[in-house]
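A common beginner's mistake is to predict each chain separately and then try to dock the pieces by hand. The better habit, illustrated here, is to supply every component at once so that their relative placement is modeled jointly.
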Amino acid sequence: MRADKARNREAVLAAVARLLEEADDPDEVSMDAVAAAAGVGKGTIFRGFGDRRGLIRTLYDDRVAQSLAPTPPTAESPSDAAVELLTRVWTFKEQHRGLTLALEREGQGSPYQSAGYDRLHADLVSLITRGRGPENAGFLAHALLAAVRSDLVEHLRRQPDGDPLAGLRDLVRQVFS
Amino acid sequence: MRADKARNREAVLAAVARLLEEADDPDEVSMDAVAAAAGVGKGTIFRGFGDRRGLIRTLYDDRVAQSLAPTPPTAESPSDAAVELLTRVWTFKEQHRGLTLALEREGQGSPYQSAGYDRLHADLVSLITRGRGPENAGFLAHALLAAVRSDLVEHLRRQPDGDPLAGLRDLVRQVFS
DNA sequence: ACCATAGCGGACTATCGGTCCGCTTAGGAA
DNA sequence: TTCCTAAGCGGACCGATAGTCCGCTATGGT
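With all components supplied together, the output reads:
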Protein backbone atom coordinates (compact mmCIF):
# COMPACT_ATOMS: atom_id res chain seq x y z
CA MET A 1 0.00 0.00 0.00
CA ARG A 2 1.30 3.41 -0.92
CA ALA A 3 2.27 5.68 1.96
CA ASP A 4 -0.19 8.43 1.06
CA LYS A 5 -3.04 5.93 0.96
CA ALA A 6 -2.27 4.64 4.43
CA ARG A 7 -1.88 8.20 5.74
CA ASN A 8 -5.21 9.27 4.29
CA ARG A 9 -6.91 6.19 5.65
CA GLU A 10 -5.83 7.03 9.18
CA ALA A 11 -6.74 10.69 8.73
CA VAL A 12 -10.26 9.77 7.59
CA LEU A 13 -10.83 7.30 10.43
CA ALA A 14 -9.61 9.81 13.00
CA ALA A 15 -11.78 12.55 11.50
CA VAL A 16 -14.98 10.53 11.41
CA ALA A 17 -14.41 9.23 14.94
CA ARG A 18 -13.99 12.75 16.26
CA LEU A 19 -16.96 14.18 14.35
CA LEU A 20 -19.25 11.34 15.44
CA GLU A 21 -18.45 11.83 19.10
CA GLU A 22 -18.86 15.60 18.84
CA ALA A 23 -22.21 15.47 17.07
CA ASP A 24 -25.48 15.08 18.91
CA ASP A 25 -26.86 12.99 16.09
CA PRO A 26 -24.77 10.87 13.69
CA ASP A 27 -26.86 12.08 10.77
CA GLU A 28 -25.36 15.52 11.28
CA VAL A 29 -21.99 14.14 10.18
CA SER A 30 -21.95 14.36 6.39
CA MET A 31 -19.40 12.71 4.18
CA ASP A 32 -18.38 16.16 2.94
CA ALA A 33 -17.66 17.19 6.53
CA VAL A 34 -15.56 14.07 7.09
CA ALA A 35 -13.58 14.75 3.92
CA ALA A 36 -12.99 18.37 4.90
CA ALA A 37 -11.99 17.47 8.46
CA ALA A 38 -9.60 14.81 7.21
CA GLY A 39 -8.14 17.15 4.61
CA VAL A 40 -8.86 14.80 1.71
CA GLY A 41 -11.24 14.77 -1.23
CA LYS A 42 -14.58 13.02 -0.98
CA GLY A 43 -13.57 10.55 -3.67
CA THR A 44 -10.76 9.31 -1.46
CA ILE A 45 -13.22 8.27 1.22
CA PHE A 46 -15.52 6.41 -1.12
CA ARG A 47 -12.62 4.70 -2.87
CA GLY A 48 -11.16 3.55 0.43
CA PHE A 49 -14.31 2.49 2.25
CA GLY A 50 -16.97 1.88 -0.41
CA ASP A 51 -19.78 3.89 1.10
CA ARG A 52 -20.94 5.43 4.36
CA ARG A 53 -21.77 2.05 5.91
CA GLY A 54 -18.35 0.73 4.97
CA LEU A 55 -16.63 3.67 6.62
CA ILE A 56 -18.59 3.26 9.84
CA ARG A 57 -18.20 -0.51 9.89
CA THR A 58 -14.45 -0.17 9.38
CA LEU A 59 -14.15 2.26 12.25
CA TYR A 60 -16.34 0.03 14.39
CA ASP A 61 -14.29 -3.08 13.66
CA ASP A 62 -11.19 -1.08 14.47
CA ARG A 63 -12.51 0.02 17.86
CA VAL A 64 -13.84 -3.44 18.65
CA ALA A 65 -10.41 -4.88 17.96
CA GLN A 66 -8.93 -2.33 20.35
CA SER A 67 -11.45 -2.54 23.18
CA LEU A 68 -13.23 -5.84 23.05
CA ALA A 69 -10.64 -8.25 21.75
CA PRO A 70 -8.79 -9.23 24.92
CA THR A 71 -11.41 -11.56 26.40
CA PRO A 72 -9.90 -13.39 29.34
CA PRO A 73 -12.57 -16.07 29.82
CA THR A 74 -13.04 -15.86 33.56
CA ALA A 75 -14.94 -19.12 33.79
CA GLU A 76 -18.26 -18.65 35.60
CA SER A 77 -21.86 -19.72 35.51
CA PRO A 78 -23.72 -19.05 32.26
CA SER A 79 -25.67 -16.32 34.04
CA ASP A 80 -22.54 -14.53 35.19
CA ALA A 81 -21.00 -14.93 31.77
CA ALA A 82 -24.07 -13.31 30.21
CA VAL A 83 -23.93 -10.47 32.71
CA GLU A 84 -20.30 -9.88 31.88
CA LEU A 85 -20.92 -10.05 28.13
CA LEU A 86 -23.79 -7.59 28.17
CA THR A 87 -22.03 -5.27 30.61
CA ARG A 88 -19.07 -5.17 28.26
CA VAL A 89 -21.36 -4.33 25.34
CA TRP A 90 -23.08 -1.61 27.36
CA THR A 91 -19.88 0.12 28.43
CA PHE A 92 -18.47 -0.13 24.92
CA LYS A 93 -21.52 1.65 23.61
CA GLU A 94 -21.22 4.28 26.30
CA GLN A 95 -17.63 4.93 25.32
CA HIS A 96 -18.40 5.07 21.59
CA ARG A 97 -21.88 6.54 21.59
CA GLY A 98 -21.63 8.40 18.29
CA LEU A 99 -20.07 5.49 16.50
CA THR A 100 -22.45 2.84 17.78
CA LEU A 101 -25.48 5.05 17.21
CA ALA A 102 -24.33 5.49 13.63
CA LEU A 103 -23.64 1.80 13.20
CA GLU A 104 -27.06 0.68 14.40
CA ARG A 105 -28.74 3.23 12.18
CA GLU A 106 -27.04 2.01 9.03
CA GLY A 107 -28.13 -1.30 7.55
CA GLN A 108 -31.43 0.36 6.63
CA GLY A 109 -31.97 1.32 10.24
CA SER A 110 -31.92 -2.14 11.75
CA PRO A 111 -28.93 -3.51 13.67
CA TYR A 112 -29.98 -7.10 13.01
CA GLN A 113 -27.97 -7.64 9.86
CA SER A 114 -24.63 -6.55 11.20
CA ALA A 115 -22.17 -9.42 11.34
CA GLY A 116 -21.41 -8.72 14.99
CA TYR A 117 -25.05 -9.08 16.00
CA ASP A 118 -25.38 -12.67 14.86
CA ARG A 119 -22.27 -13.59 16.76
CA LEU A 120 -23.49 -12.01 19.99
CA HIS A 121 -26.90 -13.58 19.55
CA ALA A 122 -25.43 -17.03 19.03
CA ASP A 123 -23.24 -16.68 22.12
CA LEU A 124 -26.20 -15.60 24.22
CA VAL A 125 -28.38 -18.42 22.93
CA SER A 126 -25.67 -20.84 23.98
CA LEU A 127 -25.43 -19.34 27.46
CA ILE A 128 -29.19 -19.27 27.91
CA THR A 129 -29.53 -22.85 26.73
CA ARG A 130 -26.91 -23.98 29.22
CA GLY A 131 -28.32 -21.85 32.03
CA ARG A 132 -32.03 -22.50 31.81
CA GLY A 133 -32.72 -24.73 28.83
CA PRO A 134 -33.53 -24.15 25.20
CA GLU A 135 -37.12 -22.88 25.55
CA ASN A 136 -37.44 -19.43 23.94
CA ALA A 137 -33.67 -19.09 23.96
CA GLY A 138 -33.66 -17.34 20.58
CA PHE A 139 -36.20 -14.71 21.58
CA LEU A 140 -34.72 -14.15 25.03
CA ALA A 141 -31.30 -13.55 23.50
CA HIS A 142 -32.82 -10.96 21.18
CA ALA A 143 -34.56 -9.33 24.12
CA LEU A 144 -31.36 -9.12 26.17
CA LEU A 145 -29.52 -7.56 23.24
CA ALA A 146 -32.39 -5.12 22.72
CA ALA A 147 -31.80 -3.94 26.28
CA VAL A 148 -28.33 -2.76 25.32
CA ARG A 149 -29.20 -1.03 22.07
CA SER A 150 -27.19 2.10 21.57
CA ASP A 151 -30.12 4.47 21.45
CA LEU A 152 -31.34 3.16 24.81
CA VAL A 153 -27.84 3.61 26.22
CA GLU A 154 -27.90 7.13 24.87
CA HIS A 155 -31.40 7.83 26.16
CA LEU A 156 -30.45 6.79 29.70
CA ARG A 157 -27.26 8.81 29.49
CA ARG A 158 -29.29 11.93 28.74
CA GLN A 159 -31.99 11.33 31.30
CA PRO A 160 -30.64 8.97 33.94
CA ASP A 161 -33.10 6.70 35.74
CA GLY A 162 -31.30 4.62 38.33
CA ASP A 163 -28.13 2.65 37.63
CA PRO A 164 -28.48 1.00 34.23
CA LEU A 165 -25.74 -1.55 34.85
CA ALA A 166 -27.46 -2.66 38.04
CA GLY A 167 -30.70 -2.91 36.11
CA LEU A 168 -29.00 -4.92 33.42
CA ARG A 169 -27.57 -7.37 35.97
CA ASP A 170 -31.00 -7.67 37.52
CA LEU A 171 -32.61 -8.36 34.15
CA VAL A 172 -30.12 -11.01 33.15
CA ARG A 173 -30.34 -12.82 36.49
CA GLN A 174 -34.14 -12.89 36.27
CA VAL A 175 -34.01 -14.32 32.77
CA PHE A 176 -31.60 -17.03 33.86
CA SER A 177 -33.43 -17.88 37.09
CA MET B 1 -62.74 23.00 7.61
CA ARG B 2 -63.34 23.21 3.92
CA ALA B 3 -64.56 20.08 2.20
CA ASP B 4 -61.58 19.83 -0.16
CA LYS B 5 -59.15 20.04 2.74
CA ALA B 6 -60.82 17.19 4.62
CA ARG B 7 -61.00 15.12 1.45
CA ASN B 8 -57.31 15.63 0.73
CA ARG B 9 -56.37 14.83 4.30
CA GLU B 10 -58.06 11.44 4.10
CA ALA B 11 -56.58 10.75 0.67
CA VAL B 12 -53.08 11.48 1.95
CA LEU B 13 -53.45 9.32 5.06
CA ALA B 14 -54.84 6.43 3.01
CA ALA B 15 -52.03 6.76 0.47
CA VAL B 16 -49.19 6.85 2.98
CA ALA B 17 -50.67 3.92 4.92
CA ARG B 18 -50.86 1.83 1.77
CA LEU B 19 -47.40 2.77 0.54
CA LEU B 20 -45.79 2.09 3.92
CA GLU B 21 -47.26 -1.39 4.14
CA GLU B 22 -46.30 -2.19 0.57
CA ALA B 23 -42.69 -1.04 0.91
CA ASP B 24 -39.97 -3.24 2.31
CA ASP B 25 -38.35 -0.24 3.93
CA PRO B 26 -40.17 2.94 5.01
CA ASP B 27 -37.34 5.05 3.57
CA GLU B 28 -38.43 3.93 0.12
CA VAL B 29 -41.65 5.89 0.54
CA SER B 30 -40.87 9.44 -0.54
CA MET B 31 -43.11 12.40 0.04
CA ASP B 32 -43.39 12.84 -3.73
CA ALA B 33 -44.66 9.29 -4.00
CA VAL B 34 -47.25 9.93 -1.29
CA ALA B 35 -48.40 13.10 -3.03
CA ALA B 36 -48.68 11.32 -6.38
CA ALA B 37 -50.52 8.34 -4.88
CA ALA B 38 -52.94 10.64 -3.07
CA GLY B 39 -53.49 12.74 -6.18
CA VAL B 40 -52.50 15.99 -4.46
CA GLY B 41 -49.58 18.37 -4.67
CA LYS B 42 -46.66 18.04 -2.32
CA GLY B 43 -47.37 21.42 -0.78
CA THR B 44 -50.72 20.11 0.39
CA ILE B 45 -49.04 17.43 2.48
CA PHE B 46 -46.57 19.75 4.14
CA ARG B 47 -49.25 22.35 4.83
CA GLY B 48 -51.51 19.78 6.41
CA PHE B 49 -49.00 17.77 8.43
CA GLY B 50 -45.95 20.00 8.89
CA ASP B 51 -43.28 17.55 7.86
CA ARG B 52 -42.63 13.85 7.36
CA ARG B 53 -42.64 13.13 11.08
CA GLY B 54 -45.92 14.94 11.50
CA LEU B 55 -47.53 12.91 8.76
CA ILE B 56 -46.37 9.63 10.24
CA ARG B 57 -47.29 10.62 13.78
CA THR B 58 -50.76 11.66 12.64
CA LEU B 59 -51.32 8.34 10.91
CA TYR B 60 -49.96 6.51 13.94
CA ASP B 61 -52.24 8.35 16.37
CA ASP B 62 -55.12 7.58 14.04
CA ARG B 63 -54.39 3.85 14.00
CA VAL B 64 -53.77 3.74 17.73
CA ALA B 65 -57.13 5.34 18.31
CA GLN B 66 -58.72 2.65 16.11
CA SER B 67 -56.92 -0.42 17.43
CA LEU B 68 -55.60 0.25 20.87
CA ALA B 69 -58.20 2.53 22.38
CA PRO B 70 -60.79 0.02 23.62
CA THR B 71 -58.91 -1.28 26.65
CA PRO B 72 -61.21 -3.38 28.73
CA PRO B 73 -59.13 -3.63 31.90
CA THR B 74 -59.46 -7.33 32.64
CA ALA B 75 -58.15 -6.99 36.16
CA GLU B 76 -55.33 -9.42 36.81
CA SER B 77 -51.98 -9.64 38.52
CA PRO B 78 -49.44 -6.97 37.52
CA SER B 79 -47.49 -9.67 35.71
CA ASP B 80 -50.48 -10.73 33.62
CA ALA B 81 -51.35 -7.12 32.94
CA ALA B 82 -47.83 -6.51 31.66
CA VAL B 83 -48.01 -9.59 29.47
CA GLU B 84 -51.28 -8.37 28.02
CA LEU B 85 -49.97 -4.85 27.47
CA LEU B 86 -46.81 -5.96 25.70
CA THR B 87 -48.63 -8.58 23.67
CA ARG B 88 -51.02 -5.90 22.47
CA VAL B 89 -48.10 -3.68 21.48
CA TRP B 90 -46.41 -6.59 19.67
CA THR B 91 -49.45 -7.53 17.63
CA PHE B 92 -50.15 -3.87 16.82
CA LYS B 93 -46.65 -3.55 15.42
CA GLU B 94 -47.10 -6.76 13.45
CA GLN B 95 -50.29 -5.41 11.93
CA HIS B 96 -48.76 -2.02 11.11
CA ARG B 97 -45.20 -2.96 10.38
CA GLY B 98 -44.47 -0.26 7.81
CA LEU B 99 -46.05 2.46 9.90
CA THR B 100 -44.39 1.54 13.18
CA LEU B 101 -41.02 1.00 11.52
CA ALA B 102 -41.31 4.48 10.07
CA LEU B 103 -42.44 5.96 13.37
CA GLU B 104 -39.55 4.55 15.36
CA ARG B 105 -37.09 5.68 12.74
CA GLU B 106 -38.24 9.30 12.86
CA GLY B 107 -37.41 11.37 15.91
CA GLN B 108 -33.76 11.31 14.86
CA GLY B 109 -33.86 7.54 14.88
CA SER B 110 -34.80 7.03 18.50
CA PRO B 111 -38.29 6.03 19.59
CA TYR B 112 -37.73 7.42 23.08
CA GLN B 113 -39.09 10.87 22.47
CA SER B 114 -42.42 9.84 21.07
CA ALA B 115 -45.26 10.85 23.37
CA GLY B 116 -46.63 7.32 23.38
CA TYR B 117 -43.39 5.86 24.67
CA ASP B 118 -43.39 7.79 27.91
CA ARG B 119 -46.95 6.70 28.60
CA LEU B 120 -46.17 3.02 28.05
CA HIS B 121 -43.01 3.30 30.13
CA ALA B 122 -44.85 4.90 33.03
CA ASP B 123 -47.53 2.20 32.93
CA LEU B 124 -44.93 -0.55 32.95
CA VAL B 125 -42.99 1.06 35.79
CA SER B 126 -46.18 1.08 37.79
CA LEU B 127 -46.89 -2.58 37.07
CA ILE B 128 -43.33 -3.62 37.85
CA THR B 129 -43.31 -1.64 41.08
CA ARG B 130 -46.51 -3.34 42.19
CA GLY B 131 -45.38 -6.76 41.04
CA ARG B 132 -41.83 -6.97 42.35
CA GLY B 133 -40.91 -3.69 43.97
CA PRO B 134 -39.32 -0.46 42.78
CA GLU B 135 -35.74 -1.66 42.34
CA ASN B 136 -34.58 -1.06 38.76
CA ALA B 137 -38.19 -0.57 37.70
CA GLY B 138 -37.25 2.20 35.29
CA PHE B 139 -34.59 0.20 33.51
CA LEU B 140 -36.63 -3.00 33.43
CA ALA B 141 -39.54 -1.16 31.84
CA HIS B 142 -37.20 0.17 29.16
CA ALA B 143 -35.85 -3.33 28.61
CA LEU B 144 -39.32 -4.84 28.21
CA LEU B 145 -40.27 -2.15 25.71
CA ALA B 146 -37.01 -2.72 23.85
CA ALA B 147 -38.10 -6.33 23.38
CA VAL B 148 -41.10 -5.16 21.34
CA ARG B 149 -39.33 -2.64 19.15
CA SER B 150 -40.68 -2.66 15.65
CA ASP B 151 -37.46 -3.60 13.94
CA LEU B 152 -37.16 -6.67 16.18
CA VAL B 153 -40.77 -7.57 15.38
CA GLU B 154 -39.90 -7.21 11.71
CA HIS B 155 -36.66 -9.15 12.04
CA LEU B 156 -38.44 -12.12 13.62
CA ARG B 157 -41.20 -11.93 11.02
CA ARG B 158 -38.59 -12.33 8.26
CA GLN B 159 -36.56 -15.05 9.94
CA PRO B 160 -38.75 -16.76 12.52
CA ASP B 161 -37.07 -18.27 15.57
CA GLY B 162 -39.67 -19.94 17.76
CA ASP B 163 -42.89 -18.29 18.88
CA PRO B 164 -42.14 -14.66 19.75
CA LEU B 165 -45.31 -14.17 21.79
CA ALA B 166 -44.45 -17.22 23.90
CA GLY B 167 -40.97 -15.82 24.36
CA LEU B 168 -42.39 -12.46 25.33
CA ARG B 169 -44.66 -14.06 27.95
CA ASP B 170 -41.68 -16.00 29.26
CA LEU B 171 -39.57 -12.86 29.50
CA VAL B 172 -42.20 -10.83 31.32
CA ARG B 173 -42.90 -13.60 33.82
CA GLN B 174 -39.20 -13.97 34.60
CA VAL B 175 -38.86 -10.25 35.17
CA PHE B 176 -41.83 -10.26 37.52
CA SER B 177 -40.84 -13.42 39.38
C1' DA C 1 -74.38 35.54 -8.85
C1' DC C 2 -70.42 37.28 -6.58
C1' DC C 3 -66.06 37.53 -4.38
C1' DA C 4 -62.74 37.28 -0.50
C1' DT C 5 -59.77 34.04 0.76
C1' DA C 6 -58.67 29.33 2.31
C1' DG C 7 -56.46 26.17 0.08
C1' DC C 8 -53.96 24.11 -3.88
C1' DG C 9 -49.88 22.26 -6.36
C1' DG C 10 -45.82 22.03 -8.85
C1' DA C 11 -41.59 24.51 -9.88
C1' DC C 12 -37.83 25.59 -7.04
C1' DT C 13 -34.01 25.25 -3.38
C1' DA C 14 -30.65 23.14 -0.27
C1' DT C 15 -28.31 19.23 0.91
C1' DC C 16 -27.22 14.70 0.84
C1' DG C 17 -24.69 10.16 -0.71
C1' DG C 18 -22.28 8.63 -4.35
C1' DT C 19 -19.68 8.83 -9.21
C1' DC C 20 -16.15 10.12 -12.55
C1' DC C 21 -12.20 11.48 -14.83
C1' DG C 22 -8.23 14.57 -15.62
C1' DC C 23 -4.29 15.55 -12.77
C1' DT C 24 -0.61 14.51 -9.28
C1' DT C 25 2.88 12.07 -7.18
C1' DA C 26 4.86 7.99 -5.14
C1' DG C 27 8.45 4.96 -5.57
C1' DG C 28 10.70 1.06 -8.26
C1' DA C 29 13.89 0.74 -12.35
C1' DA C 30 17.81 2.12 -14.92
C1' DT D 1 19.68 11.00 -9.60
C1' DT D 2 16.36 10.71 -13.20
C1' DC D 3 12.57 8.89 -15.33
C1' DC D 4 8.20 6.79 -16.10
C1' DT D 5 4.03 4.39 -15.11
C1' DA D 6 0.14 3.57 -12.80
C1' DA D 7 -1.82 3.97 -8.17
C1' DG D 8 -4.03 7.28 -6.07
C1' DC D 9 -6.13 11.86 -5.57
C1' DG D 10 -9.97 15.31 -5.26
C1' DG D 11 -13.47 18.31 -6.47
C1' DA D 12 -16.89 19.12 -10.10
C1' DC D 13 -20.78 16.73 -11.07
C1' DC D 14 -25.25 13.79 -10.71
C1' DG D 15 -29.74 12.03 -9.03
C1' DA D 16 -32.73 11.89 -5.30
C1' DT D 17 -34.99 13.80 -1.38
C1' DA D 18 -37.28 16.84 2.26
C1' DG D 19 -39.07 21.03 2.51
C1' DT D 20 -40.49 26.14 0.61
C1' DC D 21 -42.97 29.55 -2.02
C1' DC D 22 -46.21 31.98 -4.54
C1' DG D 23 -49.36 32.59 -8.43
C1' DC D 24 -53.69 30.32 -9.38
C1' DT D 25 -58.18 27.87 -8.27
C1' DA D 26 -62.47 26.91 -6.46
C1' DT D 27 -65.14 26.83 -2.08
C1' DG D 28 -68.91 28.38 0.39
C1' DG D 29 -70.86 32.32 2.91
C1' DT D 30 -73.35 36.68 1.52
